[in-house]
Amino acid sequence: MDYFAQQAINAVQLGSIYALIALGYSMVYGVLVMINFAHGDVFMVSSFFCFLLLLVLPVPFGAALIIVMLATAILGVAIERLAYRPLRNAPRVSAIITALGCGLVIQNTTLSLSPYSQRMPELFVPVLQHFGGVTVSSLQVLIIGVSVGLMIALDFFIRKTRYGMAMRAIAQDRISVPLMGVPVNQIIAMTFAIGAALGGAAGVLYASAYPVISATMGVLVGWKAFVAAVIGGIGNVRGAVLGAYVLGAVEVFTVTILPSTYRDLVVYSLLLVILVFKPYGLLGRPSVQKV
Amino acid sequence: MMRWFKQPPPRGVLLALLAAGLAACFAIEQFGLVDDYVRFVLITLGINIILCVSLNLVNGWMGEFSVGHAGFMALGAYLSACVSVKWLGWGDPLWMFPLAVMAGGLLAGAVGLLLGLLSFKTRGDYLAIITLAFLMIVKSGIENIPYVGGPRGFLGIGNHTTLLWTAVWTVLTLWAIRNLVYSRFGRGIVAVREDEIAANAMGVDTRKAKLAAFVVSSFFGGVAGALFAHQLQFINPGVFDIVKSTEILVMVYLGGIGSLGGSILGAAAFTILAQVLQPLGTWRMVILPLILVLLMLFRPRGIMGMREFPWFVPRREFPAKEDKK
Amino acid sequence: MSALLEVRDVTMRFGGLVAVADLTLEVTQGHAHGIIGPNGAGKTTAFNVITGIYTPTAGDVLFRGEIISGRRPSAIARGGIARTFQNIRLFRDLTVLDNVRIAHDAHARYSWPGAMVQLPSARRAEQESIEHCTDLLEKFGLVDAAYERAGDLPYGSQRRLEIARAMALQPSLLLLDEPAAGMNSAETLKLVEFLGWLRDHFSVTMLLIEHHMQLVMTFCDRITVLDFGKTIAEGSPDEVRNDPKVIEAYLGQEDGHE
């Protein structure tokens, strides 16, 4: 029972980080109907931003978080402006390919500059608390707390502010919304900024929890978050969070029963199975085509 | 689906050139007319052409977005290696090798059938995601099979991929896919891309068309994988990942979607590029995707998008020259 | 004369919205049957049910006495029902000839392995398809554009091509969804002539959705009037023209059109 509780905490921690990244995928898909394949690598790069920052200027956790989130947001907006906006009216395939290409450029540039993994300087000294047989580290609490806090803030933003409403409107109908005076380009840029910032937060949190970072993290971790977003129903913000925690649980508990080489196999098979039975994800809804 | 460049050539000329080409390949091999490096590159070119044309069937002619082609390569590579090393290793390569390659292709084709069935209900982004999942499943699946070496790979594969075999398979692939494209199935596949609802309304069995596209595409992907395995003589799951799939995507979108000539062009350009960029190490995979991005921004259909060399087009497809009555 | 097409109490519901309610319709072989009604009355939905794009929530569609509702659209098309679309759905990037050939392919027999190895039966079928379709294009006055991109054709030619493509299916029943859309009076008159030629030359039964009263009243043998998914009148043009319910619903003037 204690073992189960311990693993459950790990699952929630992993799920929280996945959720922050998955939200980036879902928000962009919701607004542009585009899979931002580069997002996983943006997450990876943000952890390197954190690493470089701490090398140059050792700042406390909170400051690092904010600075990296900002830097990542700028990167996200830059990618949108340079690579995606010119293709906004191009066939969908072009946009996906471009995103894939951007992701690979980011990944391999990082890989070329840092062929080996890097060890993160310590950001946070965790305090361990024992509850019977279960050990909880304050780092875990921080990670879960920060993630959930950001998710709540995002939910509030989307549901209660003008900008959030604009995002939801654009997700429904991209053509007529600009005709009503909504600055679509700005809102889209904002969506990318927020999504990237959340990915940046995830990067800092992930690097704090698992202090060895490498350029392949984008594919290893970031793409899992993408799987989470799809499982939940891509384009759906709540789905992203649901999918992330489902995935976190699946990964953590799979490794308890099977050898770790089976982890990816189980995750992607789960994705396939879900897509076969629920083609639009757990919470997704198909768009109706008029004949 | 075609615009004409020039007049179609007489059939006899084509056959003669083909025979000459195959004879040349045989001679090169037999008499060692080129050095090992050039031979290696030529074989790679052939394999790349097969990969490019077969993926083009799904991504170009049918207009979908599959990122899973490396997975079909993997299936073909591994099964053919099992056949040629573990099961029929005693056999004469002359009959054993084509059998191994066919087996690889058939396995890939069978799995492609499954993917095709899945594509009935899903299109566009979601199908792309399914192909991605498929790729990851194949890769991590193979990693968990100790019989074929798991993550460390499969060693000791025989060097059976000769220039002649490569040429034979390349020609077969091009011919078979060309025949498919200029038939009612090819037209059906393209109709599905253009407007699936109208295609159904005009009697096109869109399910059969999708199956045909996926099965044929994956079969030849498997064939390419088999040839690949017997060229490198060593394969491991890490080779058949998203990077490999991306390389094939670059070939398709560079050379031109929905075009046989474009596929050859794209494969050739990529093969040369890959060799030229070799000394750059990992920077290679910065430049290649960058090329992909630039292509999408400036020339999304590729060099020969939807256009065709008249040499590939059956003569009956050309407008009949009639006297004005 | 027998009923070629029978629509029996068909209801089509999308969630809470009832697009078509208890639609009953009989199209007699050899007739031209018109469906009219205000926008949103359920006319195109009725077409979509007949051609198999939707399976009716209730009721049946019978073609030549056999139930076809629930079959796949491609099977229904191969069975002899062809259609055009309200917003032209040509294969825009393909040539004019290929557009027609795709429909003609529905009756070809050869298999895909046969195609891939170029069996003589496959090659013969291909040659025959080109000849037949070129012939067809000639009848429709489109043969000179045979190798042009369908999307590049002028609007009127595109509409004609869509009909030519439908006829390549060799249908017994042709469904036309607003064939006169965007046409002025002169063009509409020519269309009436064209449709008459179509009916006589190909011996095809027609079911038309139209807003142009001129066309419907002069060309159709029987008319069904829909409003809010329900049939409000049915009969010969004269009967319909004078039906008070129809006049109230939307006719207004005798020769007005939307």
Top keywords for this entry?
A: 291 residues, 10 helices, 4 strands, 71% helix, 4% strand, globular, B: mainly alpha, ABC transporter involved in vitamin B12 uptake, BtuC, 12 helices, disordered N terminus
Q: What's the helix and strand layout?
A:
The complex is a heterotrimer of chains A (291), B (325) and C (258).
Chain A: H1 2-32, H2 39-56, H3 61-84, H4 92-113, E1 118-119, E2 128-131, E3 134-137, H5 138-160, H6 162-172, H7 184-209, E4 212-213, H8 217-232, H9 237-257, H10 263-277
Chain B: H1 11-31, H2 36-61, H3 69-87, H4 93-118, H5 124-143, H6 163-181, H7 184-194, H8 196-201, H9 206-232, H10 242-255, H11 260-277, H12 284-298
Chain C: E1 3-14, E2 17-28, E3 32-36, H1 43-50, E4 58-63, E5 66-67, H2 73-78, E6 81-83, H3 96-104, H4 112-116, H5 120-139, H6 155-167, E7 173-177, H7 185-202, E8 205-209, H8 213-219, E9 222-227, E10 230-235, H9 237-241, H10 244-251
Parallel strand pairs in C: 3-8, 3-9, 6-7, 7-8
Antiparallel strand pairs in C: 1-2, 1-4, 4-5, 9-10
Summed up:
Chain B is mostly helical.
What does this structure look like?
The complex is a heterotrimer of chains A (291), B (325) and C (258). Chain A is mainly alpha-helical. Chain A has helices at 2-32, 39-56, 61-84, 92-113, 138-160, 162-172, 184-209, 217-232, 237-257, 263-277, and strands at 118-119, 128-131, 134-137, 212-213. In chain A, the strands form two sheets. Chain A has a two-stranded antiparallel ribbon with strand order 1-4. In chain A, a hairpin with a 2-residue loop joins strand 2 and strand 3 (134-137). In chain A, helix 3 (61-84) crosses helix 7. The mean pLDDT of chain A is 89. Chain B is mainly α and 325 residues long. Chain B has one domain (11-315): Orthogonal Bundle (ABC transporter involved in vitamin B12 uptake, BtuC). Helix content of chain B is 68%, strand content 0%. Mean pLDDT of chain B is 90; it is low at 1-5. With 258 residues, chain C is an alpha/beta fold. Chain C has two domains: 1-80 and 171-258, P-loop containing nucleotide triphosphate hydrolases (Rossmann fold); 95-164, no CATH class. Chain C has helices at 43-50, 73-78, 96-104, 112-116, 120-139, 155-167, 185-202, 213-219, 237-241, 244-251; strands at 3-14, 17-28, 32-36, 58-63, 66-67, 81-83, 173-177, 205-209, 222-227, 230-235. In chain C, the strands form two sheets. In chain C, strands 6-7-8-3-9-10 form a six-stranded mixed β-sheet, sandwiched between helices. In chain C, strands 2-1-4-5 form a four-stranded antiparallel β-sheet, covered by helices on one side. Chain C is globular, with a radius of gyration of 19 Å. At the A-B interface, helix 4, helix 8 and helix 10 of A face helix 5, helix 10 and helix 12 of B.
